[in-house]
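So, can you check this record?

>
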Amino acid sequence: MNNKFLEGKRVVLASNSPRRRELMKLLCREYEVIPSQADEMIPEQVRNGFKDPAVETPLYLAKLKAADVAGENADSVVIGCDTVVALDGDILGKPTSDADAKRMLRLLSGRKHRVVSGVCVCYKGRQISFACVTNVSFRQLSDSDIDDYVATGEAADKAGAYGIQGYGALLSDGIDGDFYNVVGFPVSMINNKLLELQEK
């Protein structure tokens, strides 16, 4: 069931995320991990030109990561990805502390937000990039709900301060779109786009 386009090719994932590494196994049995060393600060003039920052930010960063790794791995299929959580147009990054995680979860409580992954694939000078958007609804969270969730430790390294694949599933009351996109790697869309490359 692995992706036909990737068969017989050297494949590189430009991310050290354990969640992406696990999902990557659905696309190919063997791949290498080479995290990007690119500076992920987006220049102000670029950021100011974004019409929809929630979509354009992860796309920009995915292209940056993939291009950085592809520079020394031009004959490999390099896959870069970046995921953001956005509420009312504002991007919620990874929390800097437990207090910051609780602040984010209070913002998400009882609301619908977007999770957007930007993906870029580089191969022998060719590049495709795309975004996947999933809408996630949170139930109304009590202070106790938030305290208990943050105490699990899951919030610490995740955009928006939650992981849908863990205890964070108990915070949500609905998902409209790709579940694995919320995990951080829209594997189905990536598979389909790679098959399009095969056809070209």
